[in-house]
Amino acid sequence: MLSAEFSCEQVLAMLNEYVDGVLSPDLCKELEAHMRECRNCYVLVDSLRKTIILYRKLDPPEMPQEVETRLFRVLNLEEFITEPE
Ligand SMILES: [Zn+2]
FRET pair for 42, CA 20 to 30 Å: which of 8, 34, 57, 72? Predict the structure, then answer.
């Protein structure tokens, strides 16, 4: 069912790098593809997003705007999660 090559464990291991903006574009695409198809990882990243929002209320954001935009875009793709090919 999952077309992404990564396991959930691998996604979680790369999530910090993804959020820090140091992950390569190719790996970012793989990560995003996995999150679109994997409900577990989607929920986890959604929790991360909420943490980021809380964090930003306390301190100036350290997350690059581009990365945050990518992350939020992934999280807004719920319609793609329901019908994996
Ligand atoms: Zn997963």
Answer: 57
